[in-house]
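BUG-239 | component: ligand-complex export | severity: low

The export step for pyridoxine-5'-phosphate jobs runs without errors, but we want the raw record kept on the ticket for reference. Input record follows.
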Amino acid sequence: MPLLGVNIDHVATVRQARRTYEPDPVWAAALAELGGADGITLHLREDRRHIADRDLRILRETVTVKLNLEMACNDEIVEIACKTKPDQATLVPERREEITTEGGLDLCRQREKVAAVVRRLEEAGVPVSLFLDPDPRQIEEAARLKVQAVELHTGRYAEARPGPAQLAELENLQAVAAVVRQSGLVLHAGHGLTYRNVIPVARIAEMHELNIGHSIVARAIMVGLETAVREMKRLVEIR
Ligand code: PXP
């Protein structure tokens, strides 16, 4: 059964809409844990548009499940990660103008840059996961980098129209997941997963971790975060 990592960035997004102190992602992480989250995920962006340094600092102290820091290959952020030592760093591409992370890292083009960051993090004792498009060429590169895990970008699946188009994206995820497993890498997935589309992805063989943010935080506005997390956890665990 996959672990559920709850991404709390959008709690901070609401706080930053007014540049105030509430809602506090630290509270959100505690409620997510109460709802059964196996991990708390947060993205410290270069532009600090949602999560702030203070959030990461406090969450490192208070989170009792896995703390997963999403981050770009940016010197300042790498330094913060090496000092803060999250339980896992997930390397993602980052562009200032994007609304959310748009695609996976391109290891075919950025291999050396990513390799250097992986080395720094691993030397600091931080295991690394790479956020990659479901493309076997990217997985081959990841295996050469000897990272611990790969998070498959599920955005194309999530955006596909339900029916044959979505099924084709699911089949591609399943095929690439097999390549991840055969490469000896731990399999994660995330982006765009919702209460409606999560089950087939959660059922992919040996899926170890799903990272889900927007859909859970959106539901939390209606039903509360603890309940929203519990409902997602139940879906993720359906066999
Ligand atoms: N995984 C990664 C690497 C991400 O960048 C994001 C978005 O921050 C997510 C998972 C969660 O995506 P969503 O908010 O669409 O659930």
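Assignee comment: Attached the raw record above. The chain has one domain: 3-236.
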